[in-house]
Amino acid sequence: MPTQRKEEFNPAIFEDNSPEAVEMKPVLLALLPQLLEKDYYTKLNDLPAYQAIRGQNVAYQSRVVLALTAAINRVDREENYRVRWSLAEALTALMRTTLSLSEAQYLRLFADYGLDFANPDEVSVNFYPFPVLLTLNQVAKITKRGPLGEEMLTFLRQLRDLTAGQTGDQLKVHLKTQEMLGQATGEHTLPTVVFAEGDALGRSLTQFVAALDRSTPPTAAWLGLLQRWQKATGSQPTAKLRQELDTATAAIGPDEVRAQGRTWLQLLIDLPVKEQLHTYEYASGSTHTYSSWEFLTEVNATVAKGLIWTLQPLCDAGLLEQLTALAAKCFRKIPGKGPLAAGLGNACLLALSQNGLPGVAALARVRSKIRQTNTQELIARYIAQESAKLGVSPAEIEDMAVPDFGLEDGRLQEDVADYTATLTLREGKAEVQWLKADKALKSAPAALKATHPDELKELKAAQTQAQQTYTTQRDRLDRSFVDQRRIPWPWFEQYYFRHGLLSLLARPLIWRLHRPDGAFQDAIFQQDAWQDALGQPVPTPTPDTKLQLWHPVLTSADEVLAWRRVLDTRQIRQPLKQAFREVYLLTPPEERTRTYSNRMAAHILKQHQFNSLAKLRGWRYRLLGAYDKGYDSETASLPLPIHDLTAEFWVSEVYADGEWNDTGIYNYVSTDQVRFTRANEPVPLPEVPALVFSEVMRDVDLFVGVASVGNDPQWRDNGGLAQFRTYWESYSFGDLSEVAKTRKLALERLVPRLKIGRVSEIKGNFLVVKGHRHVYKIHLGSGNILMEPNDQYLCIVPDRSSKQLGSTDVFLPFEGDAVLSIILSKALLLMDDDEITDETILRQL
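Above: the chain sequence. Below: its structure as tokens.
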């Protein structure tokens, strides 16, 4: 086994006039070389010199301890740190044994540790490398034999005060000294609790402690509870700490702890995250500016974890909502740092996971807001653990956990005093209307804010959560096509069909009804009955019927068109793209390449935008940085456990001078092949289920269609990358993707119904608009514009807050895509180009 480098030491460190030093000098001279040569895997007890010490009696070992401590103090702290550390390792080990030192000798040890309160200017809370806590444990053994002397009691009080408000080992020392003083003097004084006041939480806790009435019994329990929050240094509470938190909570009263905890949680939720700019000036005169972000001090982040652990078993609906909001905030990505407060966020997730179905529902809501892959996997494990407890699948427990918020047919009506509030959830948007004696009001009555604040708060929370839950469940359904899950009708009826919220998602969708005999029918529930694509009735599902989300790849093109006509004719708006969903079938080139597809290769994507989209669709991806070795390929991967497959989308960094951000992350990546693997081996594409292939390629098309630089109208004019100018132009005005082809079909139906219809028509890959100044060609893929007659590029940055599209009041059978909205808004603007006042646009015209 290789050994550490032999380090020289000065034997003078063992020169001392004390009897112990004189006696133990040969012993330590034999021990230290063996300590320095010891490698990581060698145990202390394996060293012959240490074995010789341990073979002696307790008094002998005690004298070794005194000599070791004196020697450590004579070691140069900077030049011989390893000598100092090695001797401290032996001292720490001996301090775990039984010793026979007197109080005076322990006080001498503490003075050698740097805790000589006779010289207060030299006293420090930095105990390294001395085992202060272990030494206190030795002193504690003396109290069992008799009372401590006044000199030792005075020292313990001074040490207690020195370590007040500290964390880590210093906090443990503080608690130990308080315990020893209580036992030795019989005076169980109130704990001393001090918080760092570097942030709003610390200041609030300090004010709370100062306001406590020290004559009442709950005060001691409160101080003990707050003190234990400072011990929340792990990833989850130990069994001992869990019991201590619960005991203190019971002594105070759970209702009081819950109420006060709400206040501190809300403080954390509202606490602003401030960016601080710093400029460093080099000797050469150049400067570097960077940012830091202020939220919680490290000490109070630990305290906040203790708060959350305490509230974990006390959660009601209000606390769950707060923990969900705080978790989302903690995993907010901070440039150059990562998550704002991952440890605190993980504490929130742990608390949610321990609160049954309501907690699972909250985990599902917050998962959609988190982009860190490891955190998404943690949430998935928590949900799986809860599902195992109930003996159901993770998908089933997510079904069970979805709250209905008291909705019936998307409506909830509540009477508040003389007013009636109606919460309506329609097409994913939750709104509240107020009435008084059948007279509609514009907003919540001001009078109720003073007389019924709790009711208003609950209604507002229900509105927010209903909308968030709808979005979360819509996205879950949209990702579930690939699972090809078949849901038994009794389960579907309870958790989807008759559910106050999920029914709004399930009923406008098409379902494949699998009968027990193997036959199936495709149907949608309309006008209180199941109907097929021709409007013919379909028998009501029986208990042994199973329902699967219908996908256009499962059927013929004629049937797909029939379903699209049903949606259009009856104006059924689906919550997600289903009948109009893009289908990606295996092509001859892909059949020839066998194990990979180049269909989505050779695109240039904005890496951060691609990363966000990938995480949103459940893909795993690691940002490529300039610190990686050059020209490595990376993959975004999508686990497909039901099919024992993994989809991979290969990308590479676009290496160019300065094309990375301040943290070294590349701005752009280039795309390569898509492939599927099983056990890290490539799977031939013809063997991949058609629905799985289509959905994976649809995701990748989404990544390209949204994150491609070709979609950025300003990219070329802002410089871009000169070597990719040709790519930008070919993408901006080239062939249409599958998504763009679906968009074209929608526009062919929409344009004649809009006011732009009289001056617009679709020609090839463009919507052509005749304005007063020019004729404009808007590309149906990118939304970018060329002006006739010479195809001059026109850069218009869309106003994404524009409500022009909404004002057309045109029915769309699926939730509109952003580029479709941009195309229509640009067309509306350009048909009246003589009324444009924007100077940036006018200069180009």
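The longest strand covers residues 668-678.
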